[in-house]
Design goal:
The complex is a heterodimer of chains A (about 180) and B (about 180). Chain A has about 180 residues and is mostly helical. Chain A is built from 8 helices and no strands. Chain A has helices at about 5-15, 15-40, 40-60, 70-90, 115-125, 130-140, 145-155, 160-179. By secondary structure, chain B is an all-alpha fold. Helix content of chain B is about 75%, strand content about 0%. Chain B has helices spanning about 5-15, 25-30, 40-85, 95-105, 120-135, 145-150, 155-184. The chains are: A mainly alpha (about 180), B mainly alpha (about 180). The interface of A and B includes residues 25, 54 and 172 of A.
Chain lengths: ~180, ~180
């Protein structure tokens, strides 16, 4: 039994204009959000957004629904296109180096209660992270994607994604201490 | 268990991101779906109209020119036929000298100074003098119809041909006159 997504993919492969409209309506906001996390500036984000869908339509024949959902597949394209754009435009940008933040054995309180002060500090610390680390944190904590999906988007494996998330969280609290 | 402070901080940051523009998908759709620009369509139409007009004008011009050419040719043929008829017929019984003057008076406007050669030098001298004078005299204007014909004829060689024939006929008449005088 074919799902709506399967029908959409088939229509996209047949280059039906109505399918394009459906694709943009259903997955456009998610893709645009992914791009915005990494690419600063509205016009640049719109440009990358269009590039993402152009690339997706060209590669629609290679999409395998068994490996990931259409949304995850599009997010992967958006993630890679956004990073490539940022590296091309701002190659000399330097982010907070992990080695300057102290040892990696810093322990973070796992079940700490809501603290407005900590939340504000964490917001500032998040802006100091490199774009790809900001995207990983957002995919896990805001979109609540699984480690497998995040691994597919970033081109990694789930265990590596888990390690990255732990390292990034500790890095954020070390940044707070330096602020 | 997730860090709730970090989760709240991420949620606040995400909400600060500007929303996606409402016309972004429409612009993307327009850029992806090919359609002919109205300017190109108009230009193609204009070129087609111009080409068809040129063709029509060219064909019409060609057809309009053809009848004029045939008309001029017809005029030339008609005038060729008419000119010999205009020359008077010389009868042996009648005095030639008197009649010879008439054709001379009716000579065309061609103002050549070439004289007609005579066989008898003595007789021809007097006659040739008269003839030279007659020939070299300002030509009597030809009839208006003849003038009009010669003016209208586009081919100058046809006009010359008519005059050459006229000169030949006059030459023949003079030779006849000489023969008659010799007999007398």
């Amino acid at each position: 039994m074919k799902t709506q997504t399967d029908n959409l993919i088939n229509d996209l492969r047949r280059q039906k204009p109505a399918a394009l409209g459906r694709l943009f309506a259903e997955h456009g906001p998610t893709v645009f959000r992914m791009v915005q996390r990494i690419v600063p500036g509205r016009e640049d984000a719109e440009e990358v957004y269009q590039d993402v869908f152009v690339k997706a339509l060209r590669a629609i024949e290679t999409f395998d629904p068994k490996k990931a959902t259409l949304s995850t597949w599009l997010c992967r394209i958006a993630f890679n296109e956004s990073l490539n754009f940022v590296r091309r435009r701002k190659p000399n940008l330097v982010y907070m180096d992990d080695s300057k933040l102290g040892s990696d054995s810093f322990e973070v309180q796992e079940d700490a209660p809501l603290d407005e002060e900590i939340i504000k500090q964490l917001e500032k610390a998040l802006s100091l992270l490199p774009p790809h680390e900001q995207a990983i944190i957002s995919m896990f904590y805001y979109e609540e994607r699984s480690l497998a999906d995040i691994a597919y988007v970033t081109g990694s494996i789930p265990s590596t994604v888990g390690s990255q998330l732990s390292r990034i969280r500790k890095k954020l609290y070390r940044i707070i201490k330096t602020l | 268990m997730k860090d709730i402070n970090l989760q709240e901080a991420v949620r606040r940051r995400e909400e600060q991101l500007p929303p996606m523009p409402s016309d972004l998908n429409e612009r993307l759709m327009n850029s992806l779906t090919p359609h002919p620009s109205p300017r190109r369509v108009e230009l193609k139409r204009l070129l087609l109209v111009a080409a068809s007009l040129v063709l029509v004008v060219g064909i019409g011009f060609k057809f309009l020119r053809l009848p004029k050419q045939t008309e001029t040719k017809v005029v030339q043929v008609v005038e060729r036929e008419e000119q010999p008829a205009k020359q008077p017929v010389v009868e042996p019984s009648q005095p030639v000298v008197a009649e010879a003057e008439e054709p001379l008076q009716q000579k065309p406007s061609w103002r050549s100074k070439s004289t007609v050669r005579k066989k008898n030098a003595n007789l021809s001298q007097s006659l040739s003098q008269e003839e030279e004078v007659a020939i070299e005299e300002p030509s009597v204007p030809a009839s208006e119809e003849t003038m009009e014909v010669f003016v209208e004829l586009p081919d100058p060689y046809l006009a010359l041909e008519a005059q050459v024939q006229d000169i030949r006929s006059r030459g023949e008449r003079f030779s006849q006159e000489v023969a008659l005088l010799m007999d007398h």
